[in-house]
Design brief:
Elements lengths: L9 E4 L4 E3 L7 E16 L2 E8 L4 E2 L1 H6 L6 E14 H10 L1 H27 L2 H16 E4 L2 E4 L5 H8 L3 H13 L3 E4 L2 E4 L2 H15 L5
Antiparallel strand pairs: 1-6, 2-6, 3-4, 3-5, 3-6, 7-8, 8-10, 9-10
Length: about 220
Amino acid sequence: MVHNPFSKFKKRVNRGTILYKEHEQSQEIFFIQSGLVKLQRTCDDLIMTLAILEKGDFFGDIGVLNGIEQDTRAEVLVDAELVIINKYDFEKMILTNSEIAIRMLKKYSQRMKMVFDTIIELATEDDKGRVLNVIVDLMKRFGVIKNSKIYITFPASIIEIAGLAGATLNHTQRILDDLVAGGMVHSKDETLVILDKEKLYKFIEYYRWRRGIRKV
């Protein structure tokens, strides 16, 4: 039987739980075993969602390992099972289990790519382009095909989509209303269904063509 060094640190956490806030001095690192967690940062009047983390991801490390305040707010988006480890226990694990360190390095490289992609998107896309990108990303990550439709298994409320796109609620609502009117998606409360993927892709392609943007 293989020993799991994380087993004694596991904890079930309910949706809506705030794990830490911006500028707090957190003393723990979190590893996701199941569920979803969102990382957010306040920018002027907008609350931006920087990342949706899932099984295999970790967070809280920057503040803990560097002894600085957390620069994001972490909230459980879907009921989760987390491994929660303090700095002392984490450093002891790293010294005795190199596999953990290797896995974390791989995740760090993925994070860097995500940061570069975000910078490019912010430089080239407007609010509408970012909202459209968010919908496509949710479809690819959380979409389940059923009866020729794609159901997004993610609480895709206006608030969550706006946060991911860095757009206002009103602007996000207008964009979704246009997609609904065009028969491309169904959106209500936290439900998002892609009704016609090909039509949605053609709409996005035409929109980018009008703005002179090519997807990187």
